[in-house]
């Protein structure tokens, strides 16, 4: 089993090796979460790298990633397990059909069989509590803000005891707790009680330097000059009054789009043609397309020149 990192620096370089570029602040809470065995609660705008860190951590540690994607109406039972209803029906039919010839299984035996492991469909929380040969998995509880308070209360309990209960089978407790990462896009406030169980970190948009490093890692085909321009432009865009700011995901998509179009530098026309990679609301696109794109590009280039002069 791969050992956990023993320092903040090691945590940071494990993540960098997975092309996940983070600052010392995030590496610190990450290291502490691993060391103290506490869940890590990451909050921030969409596309800043919350989900990705769980993936990066799982591959860095050689652990399985188990993802519970939250949504409105998600209930505790379906986060843990489900019975394979179709297979159960077939088993009942088979028992009925053969029962006539063989004298039949007793009602009780059939019931026991129907609610056994064979017919159990494991959902993320149950999977995360079960033993894994490569070591405790990374359990990603993604976008908790999409669920409701009763589900939060259930999570709080599940994450306190690291156990889940299946009425027909009993309680399953994790021998070694999973590494838990919760994320929220903060479409609403998640309850204090749940946050208190966790180490908390606000994931902000990256600085210019860090976003350049992310783009270099994720889109290595993009020239240094184009990378700098793309990042400077996106950073300037985040200062505009938009309905939805572009995340790192959009910066990456945009760079890839520009490469696909053989662009070597930005121009207001090129920006206007490819805005759909960066902005996802028509009002935002209409606002930036054309003369605004030219103005922001000029600002971005000024900022770039200042940054380069400062070096
Ligand atoms: N720090 C980072 N290092 C490398 N890639 C990143 C980083 N942050 C974000 N990304 C990229 O942006 C994409 C979107 O990130 P994601 O984790 O899905 O955002 P969130 O979950 O916060 O909405 C990822 O697929 C990844 O390619
Ligand atoms: Mg996400």
Which secondary structure elements does this structure contain, and how are they paired or packed?
Layout: H1 8-17, H2 24-36, E1 40-43, H3 50-61, E2 65-69, H4 76-80, E3 81-83, H5 85-102, H6 107-114, E4 120-122, H7 124-129, E5 138-142, H8 149-161, E6 163-166, E7 170-173, E8 179-184, H9 192-196, E9 199-202, H10 208-218, H11 224-237, H12 248-260, H13 268-274, H14 282-288, H15 291-310
Parallel strand pairs: 1-8, 1-9, 2-5, 5-8
Antiparallel strand pairs: 3-4, 6-7
Helix pairs in contact: 1-2, 10-11, 10-12, 11-15, 13-15
The structure holds adenosine-5'-diphosphate and magnesium ion (MG).
What does it look like?
The protein is α/β, with parallel strands linked by helices and 311 residues long. The chain has three domains: 8-77 and 122-202, 3-Layer(aba) Sandwich (Rossmann fold), CATH 3.40.50.300; 81-119; 208-303. It has helices spanning 8-17, 24-36, 50-61, 76-80, 85-102, 107-114, 124-129, 149-161, 192-196, 208-218, 224-237, 248-260, 268-274, 282-288, 291-310, and strands at residues 40-43, 65-69, 81-83, 120-122, 138-142, 163-166, 170-173, 179-184, 199-202. Strands 2-5-8-1-9 form a five-stranded parallel β-sheet. A two-stranded antiparallel ribbon has the order 3-4. Strands 6-7 form a two-stranded antiparallel sheet. Helix 1 (8-17) packs across helix 2 (24-36) and helix 11 (224-237) packs across helix 15. The radius of gyration is 25 Å and the shape is elongated. 33% of the residues are buried. The model has no long low-confidence stretch (mean pLDDT 94). Magnesium ion binds at residues 50-51, 142, 183.
């Amino acid at each position: 089993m791969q050992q956990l990192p023993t320092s903040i620096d090691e945590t940071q370089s494990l993540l960098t090796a997975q092309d996940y570029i983070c600052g010392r602040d995030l590496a610190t809470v990450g290291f502490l979460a691993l060391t103290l065995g506490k869940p890590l609660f990451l909050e921030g705008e969409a596309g800043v790298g919350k989900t990705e860190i769980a993936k990066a951590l799982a591959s860095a540690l050689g652990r399985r990633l188990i993802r519970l994607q939250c949504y409105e109406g998600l209930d505790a039972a379906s986060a843990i397990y489900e019975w394979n209803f179709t297979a159960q029906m077939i088993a009942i039919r088979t028992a009925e059909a053969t029962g006539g010839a063989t004298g039949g299984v007793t009602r009780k035996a059939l019931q026991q069989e129907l609610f056994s492991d064979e017919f159990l469909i494991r959902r993320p929380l149950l999977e995360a509590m079960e033993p894994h040969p490569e070591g405790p998995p990374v359990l990603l509880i993604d976008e908790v803000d999409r669920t409701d308070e009763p589900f939060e209360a259930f999570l709080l309990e599940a994450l306190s005891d690291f156990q889940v209960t299946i009425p027909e089978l009993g309680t399953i407790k994790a021998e070694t707790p999973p590494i838990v990462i919760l994320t929220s896009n903060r479409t609403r406030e998640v309850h204090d009680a749940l946050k208190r169980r966790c180490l908390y970190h606000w994931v902000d948009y990256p600085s210019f330097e860090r976003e350049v490093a992310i783009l270099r890692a994720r889109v290595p085909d993009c020239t240094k000059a184009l990378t700098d321009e793309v990042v400077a432009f996106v950073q300037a865009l985040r200062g505009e009054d938009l309905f939805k700011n572009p995340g790192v995901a959009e910066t990456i998509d945009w760079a890839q789009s520009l490469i696909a179009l053989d662009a070597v530098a930005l121009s207001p026309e090129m920006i206007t043609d490819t805005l759909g990679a960066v902005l996802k609301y028509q009002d935002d696109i209409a606002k930036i397309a054309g003369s605004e794109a030219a103005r922001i590009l000029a600002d971005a280039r000024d900022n770039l020149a200042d940054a380069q002069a400062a070096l």
